[in-house]
Sequence to fold (1202 residues):
Amino acid sequence: MASDIEEVESTESTESAESEARELADRLGGVGCRRKRTEDARFIQGKGNYVDDIQMPGMVYGDFVRSPHAHARIKSINKDKALATPGVHAVLTAEDLEPLGLHWMPTLAGDKQMVLADGKVCFQNQEVAMVIADDRYLAADATELVEVEYEELDPVVDPHQSMAEGAPVIRDDLAGVDEGAHGKRIHHNHIFTWDVGDADATDKVFSEAAVTVKQDMLYPRVHPCPLETCGCVASFDKVKGELTVHLTSQAPHVVRTVFSTLSGIPESKVHINAPDIGGGFGNKVGVYPGYVVATVASIVLGRPVKWIEDRIENLSTTAFARDYHMTGELAATEDGKILGLRANVLADHGAFDSCADPSKWPAGFFNICTGSYDIKTAYARVDGVYTNKAPGGVAYRCSFRVTEACYIIERMIDVLAEHLGMDKAEIRLKNFIQPEQFPYQSALGWEYDSGDYPRALKQVMEACDYDGLRREQKEKRERGEIMGIGLCTFTEIVGAGPSRNCDILGVGMFDSAEIRVHPTGSVIARMGTKTQGQGHETTYGQIIATELGLPSENIIIEEGNTDTAPYGLGTYGSRSTPVAGAATAQAARKIRDKARKIAAHLMEVSEDDLEWSGEGFRVKGVPDQSTDMPTIAWAAYNNVPEGMEPGLEAVDYYDPPNMTFPFGAYLCVVDIDRYTGETTIRRFYALDDCGTRINPMVIEGQVHGGLCEAFAVAMGQELPFDGAGNIQGASLMDYFLPTMVETPRWETDHTITPSPHHPIGAKGVGESSHVGGIPCFSNAINDAMNQFGVSHVNMPHNAFRVWRTLHELELDQRPEAANVEPYQPTREAAPESGSPASVQSPDKASGKGTEITIERNYPLDVPADDAWEILQDIEKVTACMPGASIVEQTGDTTYVGEMKLKVGPVTSAFKGDIEVLGVDPENKELRMTGSGGDSKGSSSASMSLTARIEDKGAGRCELVGSTRIELKGKLASFGGRMLENVSDRMLQQFVDSFRDRVAAGGEGEQAEEARRRVEEGPKSMNALAMVWQVIKSLFGRK
Amino acid sequence: MAKHAITLNINGQQMDVAVDSRELLIHTLRDRLRLTGAHIGCETSHCGACTVDIDGASVKSCTVLALQAQGADIRTVEGLAGSEGLHPIQEGFFEEHGLQCGFCTPGMLLRAWRLLQDNPNPTEDEIRHGMAGNLCRCTGYQNIIRAVQHASEKMQSGETAAAE
Ligand code: FES
Ligand code: FES
Fold:
């Protein structure tokens, strides 16, 4: 009994200490309280200062001429017309940058990248020239006037074909270079091979294991797509020789170093300012051609130059993420104890290796792929290759390649469980690294700092009644309903990083804080990181408030201006709290050390007699005798002990001893409509452990945001390419950003396992929920499919793809369908047409562009013979096409045709060869082919057409047409939906005119009408013009 | 290019401005009138960052020519707070942590403002559907919904107080 009482007492006293600390934190706005954000005041009143908000006297605008082709040689660039346009100041090409040595630039990954196309283009939308003009409209207009002649080359689109024998050479500049930044190159499209772990030991484990599983999986190419695109305002002061660049950068200090190195301007005369940033998520780490060219333009013109990406440019050129083609293998015992892991990855890096990883880590921290599990033997290998796609490979809301690593292990453990018929929670609990094993040395080289994985998972299972869910799933399955339960128990690795193994371009990945306490006790502090919505101005203030016992409302935090802030490596990879947060605490502690000396001096006691009270110092055992921080701050400026410098400030550059390892356990429940593939996220429960929690409100916000982005990636995001390297759907029309309607509700929870090596025990949380959320969603969908014997389906799990899987499994057959008359869909726009156009992205290896196949039947109220007569007349048929005409007949069956699309002042002319392959009077059938391109060389198309007249009797017939169109270049990149629409409308107009032509041959009032309309020509130009305008506005800024 | 003189009534203030015939309203607001609260996230009517209120309706100002707005009553985020301080919608976003990077926020606020005029007491579902034209990449939406609910409550209690 006695011991019981004691325990109660001690709990009580800890409880009272805790509540005292909480009360103090609330009063000061310190660590642990739900402090409202200081940055909000300006944002909710429209007073944020984002880069596009910046205006300067004399400022001009830059806009890019971009490549329509994925791979082509540039034969010539003619800027004359553009330069002759009033309001245009300059057109810069690689040739102009070359004398400055700026036509290429180094990448963070040890490769180099063209700033402007140097002799060839290597991906669609690559920057070819920049036009500088008085305003953004004029600049956009003038880009259309720059004439570039291309010679198309075969592209490499499929990374699996990249290293094939005879594969096209993407990087001519690397000819003969067989040593890359990360070791030997064995093929002209090979970038690096990076491996880690014991290959032989792993082979041995696999050959001896009772159970092995293997699974291929694709992590598709996606894009971080922050709401604000990238951009800059560069301003060169000729008089002072100083360069100021305001730009959207998550890492402004590194940008300064790069700019200084590139330009030769001393770093002290380069001022980089990252203003408010509208989200980054990895998109804003790199240095992009736009920044460099705008800067050169400003130096050349002596005026400020603004360059702001539009959304299509953002999605198609700056910073894709992922594109990992992975094969995972696990070896295990029969009862599910994992013995070994093998991971092989083919990494598509695009045309230049501009991955944003610490320099020595070409595959980032992919070797965290053993996850939360005690796997003794492992081997991972990543091969990076070039393809004709945009460069990038950034960490999209994750630490470097951790999302990919987490996906492979979390999918594989489910694959193994399924193979063994084991429960997916049970297999995790069986293989977890146990709390007592920390610090834990992983087989692939990391030392995990702390964790308690079983507790986290059990807490989630209990909160969601996991067993109940499994029972429900079984019952539903029996009723024919499809439900999936996804689990993910991830471990992240963040806070890069110790400078012994992490650097960027040779600069160690420390971070910094500088704190000044003013005489009246208010504080200004500056950090080397840069917030993009994470709330640094709030949370760093909380750390300082707690460390210095000063209210956070009087603490100002500044970041982003390289003139005032101490050097730091920036914000990405959840490194702000682990690194700069640590620097903040350390700098504050330096101040506190000095404050203690001043306090001792003021109170005339020895330093050793003092203890920290939370708001100042008190004499041990004499609580009344105390002094608070404002008093000490005042004294620091007028009454310091002899020999001490006045002032109260400190700087800390923190080189972390290790990474931090946040973790979590997530659970997702989905219900899938077996007939439509539509998925409802019924529940998403996220438990995160990020160590010490600085601001629970901000943490929850970060978790919600990360989960929403995880939902986007798992369920819909993808940047697909066709076989010719045309990027498909790089606009918000096709790229999936969830709205409030699709987005599920989030439930959050937490445990706290502080990091033992971080000054305040915090681990970082901004990205956990993205890293852990994606496999959780994907596991839920796959769990649903597992019930039908499918081991894995790739992301994105959009309704169409889920339906396709269900359809292949014949699960979408409604039992009652047998008795139902099939529904005949009719299209509103074209009621008489047959099956809808189908747009396909062909096999990437085919080299083909985007294909559209259209098959249509059009009833005509005229006799078959009349219709056939017109159909044979190629010139008349052509004239039915809006804007089209035959220019000349070049042979018996060959012609040169032209098609003009005119919108406002802009005329695009397609010119091409047409060949009539066959005219079959018996069947009244015509076959022809055509191919051509527009005069600017930005798009090309080829098509084959079969048209037949079918006699329907009673003076009526039907025009039966089938055509296959293949598009390359600009047009092909508009994506399927747009193309289908355009071709549908064009065909409709064609048929209308054709009908008129035939009718015009008859007699009576109707024929009269028709004749009049034929004379006018196809007047449906307007409708077409409208569609064209949509296209133009999607693509440019017209 | 010849300019056209137009008059816009923005936040209760008459503003005369000369614009190009093809100029989008968002550019007039941001570049000419220096009202940079509304942002550009896509220029294709998808993101809602440019949302302002024109003659009683939420409008994506990247899809309207400045000329079309001749004589219109326009409200932007800059005109949301009154002399008594923040508007309840602004308060809601602040209290419920309804923003992170802040880029979508002005559009969200203006859309919420119109939504609550049309439907002072929306359900969660009505908010989700009513604000689906505004994208946010940071918050995962949950706190935005709370913020709108917060504002709705506050505005209604304010009305009752005024009525009493
Ligand atoms: S900028 Fe207007 S909707 Fe996106
Ligand atoms: S707060 Fe960043 S986009 Fe909404």
